[in-house]
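Re-running the complex after MR caught last week's input typo. The corrected sequence lines follow. Everything else is unchanged.
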Amino acid sequence: MNEKLKSALRAFVPEVLVHTGLIVAYLVTVLHFLGSWLYHLYKENRETYAVVALILIVVQGIFLEELAHALLKLIRPKEPSSGPSHQQ
Amino acid sequence: MNFPISDVHIAPIYLILVGFVVGVLGGFFGVGGSFIAGPALFGFGLPMGFVIGTDLAHIVGKSVVAARKHYSLGNIDFRLGGLMIIGTIPGVECGARIIEYLKGTAWINQVIGGTFIVILVFISAFTAWEGWATLKAQRAKAKENGSRDEKPAARNQKDHSVFAFLAKHVQRLNLPPFVRLPASNIKRISLWIVIGVSFLGGFFSGLLGGGAGYIRMPSLVYILGIPTHIAIGTDLFEIIISAGYGTFTHALKGNVDILVALVMHTGAVLGAQLGVALTPYVSGPRIRLAFFPLPLIGAAIIAHGLISGHNVP
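Corrected-run output:
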């Protein structure tokens, strides 16, 4: 395997781990606290449900990714970024 | 685990795994992954109406993550993406309205499933032929020129296609108004062609679910002549728009189980990042050739569901 690709994948592993933790925490929160509220919203107010659904799915992508990057900076502040996939 | 909105019982691990697989494919190929996720959700027992809306919802989130990564690699043509919105939104609405009409009939699963299979098989056969023929032509040319020592990175930047004559012909069409797309190296192309391609993508997105990247990405490459890496990034940007609008409109019609989408998305976000990280290491024709088995898998799963009438576990 190409050395550059290897180092890119190595740098990718901690990012995946941090991201996994955050997403699972977020998911449990949403399912636990918002599950029944979302169900009632779906049954009673479809317009609000549509907006909330879109916000939740976008927030899960953007917010958690930003948070993961911030956490990674704290975890490995002096590590240089490697590979073209990590030029944020 | 019970999902009360769609009233189905699905093990979350299946959803997370499917999300991860379509995430990798989405990040790497610039597709929404609905050709895998749609049949899989259908197989897990989600009614077809919910399959389409829910799949769209999870694709929005995954595409946001993948598009941000592609943006950092300079793979998005925002001018093209912006112009395509003009055709995408009406296309999504047309597709969604046809779904609403079909919901009132007894044969919604057969119509959507059958259409899905025909399109997927055609795309698979075409990309296999084109990718293979381009790589063969490239090898022959390299042998002739004795340029086998070319660095892989430089090779990956070049994007040849044996089907390039179609894009050249389309770019020469005299159908004003015209637009320039400097980020994609296109000096002049009719706006109507751009709108037509985006309408087609939007229509299939609304009708069959997903971002319709399996239609849009090859269309951008073969019809408009966009380089493959830019087509992938721009397609993802467009998928955010079309799938976002599709999610909203399908949610209003009661076709989105957001809880299922959120569970799938946990796997998809991770997969999308991995997929994008791999794109700089592979050339355009190789990406297109590697693409061909994917639609076939989706077609096989949906054919199994239609023929047997049983759900995949």
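None of the earlier attempt is carried over here. The CA atoms of residues 95 and 206 of chain B lie 4 Å apart. The first helix of chain B runs from residue 12 to 29.
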